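Quick log. Single chain, no ligands specified.
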Amino acid sequence: MENRKDIPNQELWQMKPKSLQDDDYLTKDMGETSMLKRPVLLHVPQTTHVNEFDCPLEFQHRQKLFAQWRLPIKIAAVVSSLTFLYTLLREIIHPLVTSHQQYFYKIPILVINKVLPMVSITLLALVYLPGVIAAVVQLHNGTKYKKFPPWLDKWMLTRKQFGLLSFFFAVLHAIYSLSYPMRRSYRYKLLNWAYQQVQQNKEDAWVEHDVWRMEIYVSLGIVGLAILALLAVTSIPSVSDSLTWREFHCIQSKLGIVSLLLGTMHALIFAWNKWIDTKQFVWCTPPTFMIAVFLPIIVLIWKTILFLPCLRKKILRIRRGWEDVTKTNKIEMSSQL
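-> predicted structure:
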């Protein structure tokens, strides 16, 4: 077995993973809809260890810094900024303008905690949306051998990063939610609610449907976060290398869709009867949870449509190499023209 001394330093740092063109049958042309791309193994022994001091300076400058993270981070930053401004308008600016009430204390916890779930579920939907688009493109082309557009190609390569960022925001959302009872403002409000209950001579403030609402959506959120954690763990190379391709695909694809479904149900049950409450529409703007579930519902609907037997069988045949001669001939004729 080779060791690090047998490999020249420069050759070791010039080694690169396979490109997408070398992995067509595995990822791009198959239109795989799994959350994370299966890592490609390098032909370097596992005993080879390299630290930052072994890399020559000229190769350090040639290597890109977080190349596949740039697009997901930019999209996450844009969605976070827009959601924050939208929530700030509804929660802070509106009461300040209409009733001269200052709720700026809500910004560090309450406003941020409305931004986090919105970003998390949006990024999770963006993990599976390119797989849906890829399946539709393959159905339209009737073959898996026609290359995807460059933007879709780049999008599918960054699904792992989108998924990890979604998990990161979901964990932050859970931590912020657990911090609610620790806030001083919450304790003051709790005292005010108790005083109001005494003033109204109410012995029991129990509201049955509200109790069920919270029990259900919290439970769904916990299970959804646990599944996201499992997806994140299986993206670790040492873990993914111990799984077969079928096991990896089952976890990333099947459980990933389940986590998206649970997250969507979590948001829908959180809203409960607020969908028809006109007070939720501030300055004719819908609440954040209505906007948050829009994209995930579209993805889930398309996944359901593509899972119909008539379409599912055709997609599987295409991914196994079958070609629709009528469609491929039309594509060739149009390209020649």
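Confidence is low (pLDDT under 50) at residues 1-48.
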